[in-house]
Design goal:
By secondary structure, the chain is of the alpha+beta class. Helix content is 29%, strand content 16%. The protein has helices spanning 4-13, 29-50, 148-157, 164-179, 181-195, 244-255, 305-315, 333-344, 367-377, 389-395; strands at residues 67-78, 96-105, 119-128, 131-138, 207-208, 213-214, 220-227, 258-266, 290-297.
Length: 437
């Protein structure tokens, strides 16, 4: 009789590197994929409850909608003394690459810029022709959700809340019923702590990946971007100015560079450094922070025409944690759910062309009905049609899991409404990932 446990351990040792560290929900990738499809439908339902009216012709980012900085002339340089074990792929001693950097609030555009909130950083490292790596990080070391199930449960509990009483009911009643009392308490605690941090300068903040990624044969790591030594301390935040964080960075860059250290923490074991649980912090006392590269945003005038043009180009990009190579692939339940939703959109391009007046490509209605909608769309954009929810669900591609396109710098499953529209088709993007001129 075959020793099943011994066979599984042997197969695990010879599996692809990421398979040694990941545990699939239901026990297999296929079972997990079916689960993620169901979760995506539930997430779409939660987002439907949050949408009021027809919405804009070009839907904005659902998260990280307010940029404080968007530049395409940054540089990432790996240290000359990069540890041997971390010399993988584009991570080579002394290697330097152009980079795109975006700093933003995590909330939507309606929240005042200087108000306490979670902040985010997105970096696109242009490692060569056809090769780019997106690094996405947030201003808090852990996620409120351990996995995709918890993420969707939280979204459903908070769907459609408008008043303080509705929010309290969602957090104190609906969420515990969905995930349990202790898990709900931990999720509330993480959200409260992460979003109550007042920021004086985004140049002096640390941003964490929260989820793990593979670093070649070195195994899983979590990365963080922290302020490089030196630099001017952050001033007290001016909550009266909604654009305070942008103007503060503008003043800094008028007199000097802004630099961040890219650092990694290496995997030890599933107890101290879990891959599947995004709610657990990898403590520095267990796995030290190792600086590997320096990210530099050069001194410049952000009010100049050239800088404003660059910012507009960056705003048309869609950052995604799976925009990388196999050696640096994201790991863990939240990242796999994000990939499943992304792949459901049927594209790995930086964004999806979706304009008002265009008929839904992935509608599930019969051809004659789709043709009729196409005629109507010449006068009225499809997303503004006065359809009942049951019918809109059939024609709204933002509602369908097949059409999810993830664009935000939140390292988790992003709501289906988060679709970034381009002024030109995605095919016209240059190989660097920036819109072609």
């Amino acid at each position: 009789m075959v020793d099943t446990a011994l066979h599984e351990r042997s197969a695990l040792r010879h599996a692809a590197p990421d398979r040694r560290y990941e545990v699939y929900a239901g026990g297999s990738p296929e079972t997990e994929r079916l689960l993620f499809e169901r979760l995506a439908r539930e997430m779409a339902g939660a987002e439907w409850a949050n949408r009021h009216g027809g919405g804009p012709a070009h839907p904005p980012r659902a998260r990280h909608a307010r940029p404080a900085l968007a530049v395409d002339n940054a540089r990432l340089r790996f240290h000359d003394d990069l540890p041997e074990a971390l010399r993988v792929g584009y991570a080579r001693p002394g290697a330097e690459y152009p980079a795109v950097v975006r700093l933003s609030d995590a909330s939507g555009p309606e929240r005042p810029g200087a108000a306490p909130d979670l902040r985010g950083m997105a970096v696109r490292v242009l490692a060569g022709p056809g090769e780019a790596h997106d690094l996405l990080a947030a201003g808090f070391p852990v996620s409120h959700a351990a996995d995709a199930r918890e993420y969707v449960a939280f979204a459903k509990a908070m769907a459609g809340v408008g008043s303080t009483a509705e929010q309290a009911f969602g957090l104190l009643v609906k969420l515990p019923l969905a995930v349990g009392w202790s898990t709900a308490a931990r999720m509330r605690r993480n959200v409260h702590t992460a979003t109550r941090h007042a920021v004086g300068s985004l140049a002096r903040e640390t941003f964490w990946s929260r989820g793990a990624i593979l670093w070649g044969d070195a195994g899983p790591v979590r990365y963080l971007l922290r302020p490089a030594p030196g630099g001017t301390p952050a001033p007290p935040p001016d909550r009266g100015d909604p654009d305070y964080l942008h103007w503060e960075l503008t003043q800094r860059l008028a007199t000097g560079d802004i630099c961040f250290e890219l650092c990694v923490q290496r995997y030890l074991d599933e107890r101290r450094t879990p891959v599947e649980d995004g709610s657990v912090e990898w403590k520095e006392s267990d796995t030290p922070v190792v600086p590997v590269a320096l990210l530099t945003v050069p001194r410049q005038d952000l009010d100049a025409d050239e800088a404003r043009s660059a910012a507009r180009r960056v705003e048309r990009l869609a950052f995604h944690s799976w925009h990388t190579t196999e050696e640096f692939r994201p790991l863990g339940s939240l990242n796999r759910a994000r990939r499943a939703a992304y792949e459901a959109g049927g594209t790995h391009r930086p964004a999806l062309r979706l304009t008002a007046g265009s008929a839904p490509r992935h509608a599930v209605l019969p051809l004659p009905v789709r043709a009729a909608f196409g005629l109507v769309n010449r006068c009225v954009p499809w997303h503004r049609l006065p359809l009942p929810p049951g019918l809109r669900e059939l024609v709204d591609p933002l509602r369908s899991p097949r059409c999810l396109t993830l664009v935000d710098a939140e390292p988790a499953m992003v709501p289906p409404r988060a679709v970034l529209s381009y002024d030109r088709p995605a095919e016209e993007l240059s190989p660097t990932g920036l819109p072609a001129s």
